[in-house]
Design goal:
Layout lengths: L1 H15 L12 E2 L7 H5 L4 H17 L5 E5 L6 H15 L4 E5 L4 H14 L11 H18 L8 E5 L7 H7 L2 E6 L8 H14 L4 E4 L14 E3 L16 H10 L13 E3 L5 E3 L18 E6 L8 H10 L6 E8 L10 H13 L3 H4 L2 E6 L4 H14 L2 E4 L8 H8 L4 E4 L4 H4 L7 E3 L5 H13 L1 H18 L2 H16 L1
Parallel strand pairs: 2-3, 2-4, 4-5, 5-6, 6-7, 10-11, 10-13, 11-12, 13-14, 14-15
Antiparallel strand pairs: 1-3, 8-9
Helix pairs in contact: 1-3, 3-18, 5-6, 5-8, 9-13, 10-11, 10-16, 14-17
């Protein structure tokens, strides 16, 4: 079946992919994505799912012949959207579809406005700033400048997927060009409030004329989204990406020793890995990812949360909850986030990281010695993904104590690795985890007593932790791999083209 899928792509090369080398436009960032055969994804699937995926690929090639499927977002690295685009575009190209990725440009004020929108779509006040005429003017100015660049490469009848609030202002201009435009919002809240309604009122002006809308949950869609234009498509992961592929325990240990996170003797041998584009990378040596902390003994049990330094991820709440209850001396907490200087579309990161540092300094020395803030390098996305993979596989418990969450890709990733999860019962996490079957859910993420109690429960019950981890892996295999995601996209494109 792998050979058949490769043949589908090969047959499409001359007719479907004539524009794989798009023109260079000064000021327009186009992210390079290498083709990956659907045969690779098929290795994780049961035979009936492989056959279905083959049929979807055969349907997609003539359907999208002569069109480019564009994805536009605000960053090429950092965050779940960028990671999903790398995977889905690679497999799309492997199926013979000409799909590409553009990154929207903006300045500091623009990203402050879109971060405000991001927080309010989650139902939070964020920085409390205005969304008035000045903000509309700044937002529209950036969108118009980007639109003029994009008109040089996007053609009538192309399909454009715009991701999140940063891109909504491109809808009308691209539709006027003759493109089919889909706005994909990865965030939202189950119950609208004054903050979310404020943000939706701002975005309605720009997004309401899209040909279709995609949300991770139906409840996230505002009332002005037309029912026949609404598609619910949860995210997915790639089991063969650097972040999710299998790693032997020896490789996990070598990666974490090489990066200075756990104690061990580095044998000095090259620690190579395969990049998404097929080239070979090497894990570099680091000694400062933990801000001067010494490496952690390899024998300790690690409780870990991986996320952006974002107030809605509640890293400070995780730290406080961990410190509230006496945990055994062999248990350490890792809060893992990106190097904030590399995430250009999130102006909040530095402040949240500093809050964590200040809180850490206030703890008693014996507790402070078991809490670590880890800032991962972002200049090499594949290396970053491999380090996260090793950390998740090394962890005893993975936490995602978000106050709100659009979906929770870090939850899916840890579940795929059979890690026992403790997560907030918010947003898409509620769809991923059934409490006490696939993980432990915290109904109120602000209840630190319940969170700390859940930690103690799993630390004291290794059999329960193992059972939850095994069920978590099966849940991801059944529901959250890329074949389901790609199929839903083809169904959507088919409906719009017809």
């Amino acid at each position: 079946m792998t050979a058949e899928m490769d043949a589908i792509a090969a047959a499409a090369d001359e007719t479907v992919l004539p524009r794989l080398a798009p023109p260079e436009v000064e000021g327009l960032e186009q992210v390079a994505v290498k083709r990956v055969s659907l045969g690779l994804l098929a290795r994780a699937l049961a035979p009936d799912r492989v056959e279905h995926l083959r049929a979807v690929a055969e349907r997609a090639v003539p359907l999208l012949a002569g069109r480019v499927v564009w994805n536009i977002n605000s960053t090429a690295k950092g965050g779940g959207v960028a990671e999903m685009l790398q995977t889905l575009l690679a497999y799309g190209r492997g199926a013979g579809v000409d799909t590409r990725w553009l990154v929207l440009r903006g300045e500091e004020e623009f990203f402050a406005i879109t971060k405000r929108l991001h927080n309010r779509l989650h139902g939070a006040a964020g920085d409390g700033g205005p969304l008035g005429q000045h903000e509309h003017d700044e937002y529209a100015k950036v969108q118009q400048a980007n639109l003029e660049l994009m008109k040089q490469v996007i053609r009538p009848q192309d399909i454009v997927l715009l991701h999140d609030p940063q891109t909504a202002g491109l809808v009308d201009g691209l539709r006027e060009l003759g493109a089919i435009v889909i706005w994909r919002c990865h965030i939202g809240c189950d119950e609208q409030n004054q903050w979310s309604e404020h943000a939706w009122a701002f975005l309605k002006t720009y997004a309401e004329n899209a040909d279709a809308f995609i949300f991770s949950r139906e409840a996230y869609a505002p009332q002005w989204v037309r029912g026949d234009a609404l598609w619910v498509i949860p995210p997915s992961i790639d089991p063969f990406s650097a972040k999710n592929r299998e790693m032997a325990p020896e490789e996990v240990s070598r990666v974490l020793v090489r990066t200075g996170i756990i104690v061990g003797a580095d044998d000095g041998r090259p620690l190579n890995f395969e990049r998404r584009d097929g080239s070979t990378g090497e894990v570099r040596e680091y000694r400062d990812l933990m801000g001067g902390d010494r490496p952690i003994p390899a024998s300790v049990r690690i409780v870990m949360q991986v996320s952006r330094w974002d107030s809605l991820k509640d890293m400070t709440g995780v730290l406080t909850g961990f410190a509230m209850y006496p945990t055994p001396d062999d248990v350490h907490l890792l809060l893992v986030g990106p190097d904030i200087s590399a995430v250009t579309d999130d102006p909040e990161g530095a402040g949240v990281l500093q809050e964590c540092r200040d809180l850490l300094e206030s703890l008693p020395p014996e507790t402070r010695a078991r809490v670590h803030l880890v800032n991962l390098p972002m200049d090499d996305g594949d290396e970053n993904a491999l380090i996260v993979n090793a950390l998740q596989r090394h962890a005893a418990i993975v936490v995602q104590k978000s106050l709100v969450e659009g979906f929770g890709l870090t939850v899916t990733e840890a579940m795929w690795k059979s890690r026992p999860m403790i997560a907030s019962a918010v947003g898409g996490i509620q769809d991923q985890i059934v409490d006490r079957r696939d993980g432990l859910l915290i109904t109120d993420p602000t209840d630190l007593d319940v969170f700390a109690g859940a930690l103690v429960t799993l630390l004291d019950a290794p059999d329960l932790a193992a059972r939850l981890g095994a069920a978590a892996h099966q849940r991801v295999l059944d529901e959250y791999l890329g074949d389901r995601h790609l199929t839903q996209y083809v169904d959507l494109f088919d409906s719009l083209i017809r």
